[in-house]
Amino acid sequence: PGKKVLIVYAHQDPKSFNGSLLKIAVEELTKQGCSVTVSDLYAMQFEPRATRNDIVGHLHNPEAFNYGVETWEAYKRGGLSKDLVEEQKKVQEADLLIFQFPLFWFSMPAILKGWMDRVLVQGFAYDLSKSYDGGLLQDKLSLFSFTTGGSKEKYAARGDIRYLLWPMQHGIMHFCGVKVLEPHICYAPMHVSEDKRKEMLTAWTQRLKTLWKEEPIDCSPEWYFK
Amino acid sequence: PGKKVLIVYAHQDPKSFNGSLLKIAVEELTKQGCSVTVSDLYAMQFEPRATRNDIVGHLHNPEAFNYGVETWEAYKRGGLSKDLVEEQKKVQEADLLIFQFPLFWFSMPAILKGWMDRVLVQGFAYDLSKSYDGGLLQDKLSLFSFTTGGSKEKYAARGDIRYLLWPMQHGIMHFCGVKVLEPHICYAPMHVSEDKRKEMLTAWTQRLKTLWKEEPIDCSPEWYFK
Assembly and partners (chains A, B) (predicted)? Predict the structure, then answer.
């Protein structure tokens, strides 16, 4: 109660299964007394491309455009574009970040990857020698909640599903100092019965009820590749 | 000689180190008698977002928008948007796909991820039970060539760099039936001496000279997580 949650949501259709998972999270967390903010990326027509437009005013080095350097410098002088500043404010205030999306190609949809690329700039999310356990977004939790097209068996046949979590959970969240809760994976909701889908929605509600008691995972290589 | 190469390139500035790597590849491969096409994503202002705009005309199911289903159906009836059809034509004709980009967050920049999300649709790149060794883009090679911000030692300290190649090489290329050559990684070009940078550029030229003699990697979990 009193906790702040930011849900970054990447599905085009509110009537989708991802839309139902979002709705459940908003309702359940609000019921618990949390304050919930949603960044509905498609509805916002969020820009995924990392370009010069993200820097207001002059460039640090107009001779050779380096996005990482330019956004770092712009962050320090308060010169990042408005949409980024707004997202950073939401992140700063949040105790928990939930990412809700359909898995696209073993990873996030580009619109969500663009959110990571553009919002989590140096100076804000990490800095020189301030990364991993020293990252700048400490005392925050994150949770990747996603749906897949293929069944659990199809994924397991080629390798552990955890392999594909490494870049997202370790490479991004852990790098910024954000703790990571167990991912929430709904396998192939499009290909199961209506009953099974309802079961999956109920399971999400149930998990959210005790979410704040969960321990973060140990985000080391062993968790992923043991 | 006579081989066709598509380079999908994701850097904002031609004067960047990525720009130099691109230039070298175009020159060296052209010199070999290859026909080289470049998709310069930022220059094209390539759209990374997967939306309804990618389908020309009616939707298969207007009640619930599912991007995978809609692009599959649109592909079958020739109803994909023009920019996607053009990229698919380039892929179809290519013997080798080179992806040239700076690593962003253990993965591709969003603009390149959007190219994967939108171009490699079902029916074109894979299909029901046509994936991995049965994928639809067989007899093609791919190569991920990228630069990093951090040093080789920094990456190695947290786990093998190969861990982050799994979603890109296995989850995308291998899934579509495309064979994968060893990645080409230039570590931290921004933080090394001018001499070292020149060395890295020369190494890329040298590698390209004998590229067609290379054997693809064995894209199994063992290669990544041994």
Answer: Homodimer.
